[in-house]
Amino acid sequence: MSPRLTALTTFCAVAFAVLATLAVAMYASDAVTERQQRQQIDVFSRRALLRAELVTAEAEAALRQLAPYGGTPCTNDHLQRLRQAEEQFRYIREAGWTDGVRLRCTSLQGPIDVALPPPTWTFGDGFTAWHTETGGPGNERSMLNVRFGNHVVVIDSRFYLDIVPLDDTIELAMLETQDAAVISRWAHAGHDLVRAALRRESASEYFQGRYYVVERSRRYPIAVVAYEPEDRLRANLLGQIRNVLPPAFVVSAFGTWLVMRWRRKLRTPRNALLEGIRRHQFVAWMQPLVSLETGRCVGAEALVRWKLEDGTMVAPDTFIPMAESLGLIEPITDQVVRSVFEGVGTALANRRDLHVSINLAGGDLACTRVLDTLKTCLAKYAVRPEQIWFEVIERTLVDTATSAPVLETYRAAGHRVFIDDFGTGYSSLSYLQALPVDGIKLDRSFLRSFLRSFATGEETNKIVPHIIEMAHSLGLMMVAEGVETQAQARYLRAHGVQYAQGWLYAKAMPADEFLRYLQHEAAATGNA
Ligand code: C2E
Ligand code: MG
Ligand code: MG
């Protein structure tokens, strides 16, 4: 994954985490707030109902007190009794007497003669009620007249709901429950809304964008309806998230920066290599090895490549020394061996004249683990041991007493062993005699400087011919690395060097490409 894509993915993950956390926190806090709000409205409506019941009870008490009056109606004595009732009961504005058809006298007006309106509400054992409007324009007031027997009391409707509001949005109304007639309501309470709420089943619920609570009285056929706008209780979660988006974006960006920094810190060479091993990112590429005598490919050197997740290929010079010093070379060599067989195992089984040369590091020589891995692969792909060669860098073989027996183990298993990068080590040529090897690979840099001087005609470097001569005399095979020109190839052939490897023939390539290379060569030779 490219760093930009990693940063983007991290940002998305962090942003998701931040928003999800915020959403959960907001949801939880909204749920708590809503529950508290609902409880407050419940308590408020119960208080309102208590108040309404108190006023109703007072009207009932006043009427029951007046009912037994046995004197002549509307006399001074009777009017006196009516006034006493008006004064005694706080919410009674006026008390009067009716003959059942007309109102004959009241505590305020004395004897009168007014037609009795038809009752709009009947409750309890013989109570009836109706509304009248009093006051001038702009000062209209709705009065509730309650009658029991021949007496009538008048109550200002506002008394029923005369309590301190919970907040500036709550609305309240009091209704009678038989016909859902509104007895009293606050100025902005919707007449139809409260009636509709009363008719619904539930005692408290959301509908039409409001939260309603209906409190029904057990003593009287009355109920109180309180309601609040829904958004007062339930916050708009989406809206809230939209509001927190900009700060969440900033927090996510900062979080991403921290995560990336932390990742960079974690990405030590050791961790990176371990990750590569875990993900099997080490693959073997092939560089053809050519017989200088026939010009034909006789095999290939397996050169490891670290294939990163984003497709980048890392050259071995940058990580092999690091893997060696961190003690991680063995699992990498194992992956190279397996990769060789996965890539060209079948081709090797089909062409016994081909071999693959595998590089070994100092760490690989400490045990025979590579041989164990190899044994399994050889059996699986039916490849012969002599088709696998090994290259060991000269400087890892300095201690001949310990390295000689190890190399012998490899040779005893049927493999050929070459000294790689010959000429760059510290040892003298004579130590070749003490090592059980099949041949040497002349280092490319070494060879290059010699062949350059050779090309110019002045033989400034006399070691190369000497090495070749020495190898011949010791009966060792020779591979020349880094052959880039025909002149170099000609020189090496003329001096009896058997094999060459270099860009003159081909660069290192993935296994499938190498297989195509072999096919082309076979086809070309067949045509020739
Ligand atoms: P080496 O084993 O000497 O491999 C030969 C190197 O020379 C390769 O470099 C190859 O690409 C390069 N080369 C081949 N022909 C030419 C040419 O004509 N001109 C020039 N300028 N260069 C040429 P590469 O693949 O980068 O490998 C570098 C070194 O990494 C190898 O040197 C070897 O020491 C080490 N290495 C590669 N694969 C492995 C492995 O699987 N295990 C271990 N332990 N070391 C490995
Ligand atoms: Mg090599
Ligand atoms: Mg080499």
From TrEMBL:
Keywords: c-di-GMP, Cell membrane, Hydrolase, Membrane, Signal, Transmembrane, Transmembrane helix
Subcellular location: Cell membrane
GO molecular function, one term: cyclic-guanylate-specific phosphodiesterase activity
Family matches, as CDD domains: EAL (cd01948)
Domain EAL: 266-522
PANTHER family, per the entry: CYCLIC DI-GMP PHOSPHODIESTERASE PDEB-RELATED, CYCLIC DI-GMP PHOSPHODIESTERASE PDEF
Enzyme Commission designation: 3.1.4.52
Superkingdom of source: Bacteria
Signal peptide: 1-20
Transmembrane segments: none
Protein's membrane topology: Multi-pass membrane protein
Alphabetized SMART domains for the sequence: EAL
Protein name, UniProt field: cyclic-guanylate-specific phosphodiesterase
GO cellular component assignments: plasma membrane
Primary localization class, coarse: membrane
Catalytic activity: 3',3'-c-di-GMP + H2O = 5'-phosphoguanylyl(3'->5')guanosine + H(+)
